[in-house]
């Protein structure tokens, strides 16, 4: 190539061809449908369930409380939240090491919502062949009606999804009352439409592109695989050489393997790949190719399992050990984390008391007593009202002047009140003297003891 010649321009963006996955039926398709029903049911129904007047799952950011199946977590409990996240990550490692991308195929929101959007597409536009034909046909009344019906279903479902998403952060029943009158706040409106738009775009149009180009999990999953991990594979030794044949043909005599090259496994693949090309990063392990190939094998009278869950070792005729040490390590770590969370939760005190010295005045003289002022903060992390009495201790004759009566703290509330403590003159030597404030819940007898200091001046 001379100095003046330039290589052919390489396009930086190649438009992805639209994929029209064919519908499947079979064991794994049924499993996927069950998983979708359970997960979508949890997502759309959970925020509507109230127990004792409290939404059972509510991430109440305004009041800084996370309500989770009767458990109320506070900012002080972020540690528990991080342990829960660590458990979720470890579970992902465990299941990936055991059976590959189970999460992607059955539980990932992208997969589940894409399934729903695809179902709406089938309802309005028909089977794979009809959809392909419709897209190629000129715009006419039928095409406009079908496409409009699809868009109507997609947009309604996406808006409902966005509304439900906000309902995990703002009480959903209150939200539902405000929606018809357009009385939502700015952030509520933003997140409702943002989440609806993301669902519509990701599940309606981007689909497999999200898995291929945006999802980080596909990139690092290979680090969790080994030759004993269950993955969906095509049995090359059994299937090749592939080729079409009549059902009653003696294909062994023809020198053919079990694959009849019908392309059904490619037509059902939501990411448009050919499983016969080996394990690929685009494969989301949905198992549609297993179901459809089993159907083909049944029709041909061949044994099932030309495409199946298997391991690299099994395919290479090496011994397979699905149950292996790394699984036990993940399980042990999961068990340990669950135990730690259990211990923290059972030992967690629902009453938190905090005492801060008033920095504006060190002390005050009141007749025959010295007074020190504080700010008292009481947090009720239980689901019942607490009636709390405050006492002082640790110095001779010390008493609480304010608050005089028991303080009622509502469930999930924090109460902040002034606290005044008095000590008889000449009852103690001068200095910053250690003392304790005791908060007692009258009903349960729970006690919180807070250490603080009482200031006695040299010459009051
Ligand atoms: S579905 Fe089975 S038989 Fe048909 S092309 Fe795929 S692997 Fe071969
Ligand atoms: S190759 Fe098979 S398992 Fe992988 S995404 Fe395609 S259909 Fe699903």
Name the features.
single chain, 460 residues, alpha+beta, Immunoglobulin-like, 2 domains, five-stranded antiparallel sheet, four-stranded antiparallel sheet, disordered N terminus, binds iron/sulfur cluster
Provide structural commentary.
The protein is of the alpha+beta class and 460 residues long. The chain has 2 domains: 16-348, no CATH class; 351-456, Immunoglobulins (Immunoglobulin-like, Sandwich), CATH 2.60.40.10. Helices cover 40% and strands 20% of the residues. The protein is built from 15 helices and 16 strands. It has helices at 27-45, 78-99, 102-107, 109-125, 128-136, 141-166, 172-178, 186-206, 208-214, 217-220, 236-239, 264-267, 288-300, 312-315, 325-347; strands spanning 50-51, 54-55, 57-60, 65-68, 71-73, 231-234, 307-310, 351-357, 364-366, 369-380, 386-393, 399-402, 407-409, 414-424, 431-441, 447-456. Strands 8, 9, 10, 12 and 14 form a 5-stranded antiparallel beta sheet that branches. The protein has a 4-stranded antiparallel beta sheet with strand order 13-11-15-16, with no helix packed on it. Helix 1 (27-45) crosses helix 4 and helix 2 (78-99) packs antiparallel against helix 15 (325-347). The N and C termini lie far apart (98 Å). Mean pLDDT is 90; it is low at 1-5. Residues 232, 268-271, 273, 275, 283-289 line the site of one iron/sulfur cluster (SF4).
Outline of this structure?
With 460 residues, this protein is of the alpha+beta class. It is built from 15 helices and 16 strands. The model is unreliable at 1-5 (pLDDT under 50).
């Amino acid at each position: 190539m001379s100095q003046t010649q330039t290589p052919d321009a390489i396009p930086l963006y190649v438009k992805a061809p639209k994929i029209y996955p064919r519908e499947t039926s079979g064991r794994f398709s049924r499993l996927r449908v069950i998983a979708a029903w359970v997960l979508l049911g949890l997502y759309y129904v959970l925020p509507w369930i109230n127990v004792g007047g409290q939404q059972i799952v509510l991430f109440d950011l305004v009041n800084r409380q996370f309500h989770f199946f009767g458990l109320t977590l506070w900012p002080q409990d972020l540690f528990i939240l991080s342990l829960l996240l660590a458990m979720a990550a470890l579970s992902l490692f465990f299941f990936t090491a055991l059976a590959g991308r189970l999460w992607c195929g059955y539980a990932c929101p992208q997969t589940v919502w894409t399934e729903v959007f695809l179902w709406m597409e089938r309802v309005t536009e028909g089977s794979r062949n009809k959809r392909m034909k419709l897209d190629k046909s000129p715009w006419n009344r039928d095409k406009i009606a079908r496409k409009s019906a699809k868009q109507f279903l997609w947009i309604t479902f996406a808006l409902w999804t966005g509304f439900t998403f906000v309902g995990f952060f703002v009480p959903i029943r209150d939200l539902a009352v405000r929606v018809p009158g357009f009385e939502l706040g700015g952030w509520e409106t933003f997140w409702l439409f943002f989440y609806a738009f993301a669902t519509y775009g990701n599940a309606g149009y981007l689909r497999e592109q999200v898995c291929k180009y945006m999802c980080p999990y596909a990139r690092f999953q290979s680090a969790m695989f080994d030759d004993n991990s269950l993955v969906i594979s095509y049995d090359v030794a059994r299937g090749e050489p592939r080729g079409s044949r009549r059902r009653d043909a003696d294909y062994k005599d023809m020198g053919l393997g079990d694959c009849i090259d019908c392309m059904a496994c490619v037509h059902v693949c939501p990411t448009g790949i050919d499983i016969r090309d080996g394990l690929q990063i685009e494969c989301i392990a949905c198992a549609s190719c297993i179901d459809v190939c089993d159907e083909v094998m049944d029709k041909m009278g061949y044994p099932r399992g030309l495409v199946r869950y298997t391991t690299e070792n099994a395919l290479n005729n090496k011994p397979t050990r699905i149950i292996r040490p790394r699984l036990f390590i993940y399980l042990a770590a999961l068990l340990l984390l669950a135990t730690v969370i259990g211990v923290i939760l059972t030992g967690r005190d629902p009453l938190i008391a905090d005492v801060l010295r008033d920095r504006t005045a060190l002390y005050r003289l009141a007749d025959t007593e010295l007074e020190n002022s504080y700010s008292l903060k009481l947090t009720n992390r239980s689901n019942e009202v607490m009636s709390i009495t405050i006492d002082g201790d640790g110095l001779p004759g010390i008493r609480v002047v304010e608050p005089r009566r028991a303080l009622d703290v509502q469930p999930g509330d924090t109460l902040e009140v002034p606290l005044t403590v008095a000590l008889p003159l000449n009852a103690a030597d001068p200095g910053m003297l250690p003392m304790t404030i005791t908060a007692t819940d009258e009903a349960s007898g729970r006690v919180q003891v807070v250490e603080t200091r009482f200031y006695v001046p040299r010459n009051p």
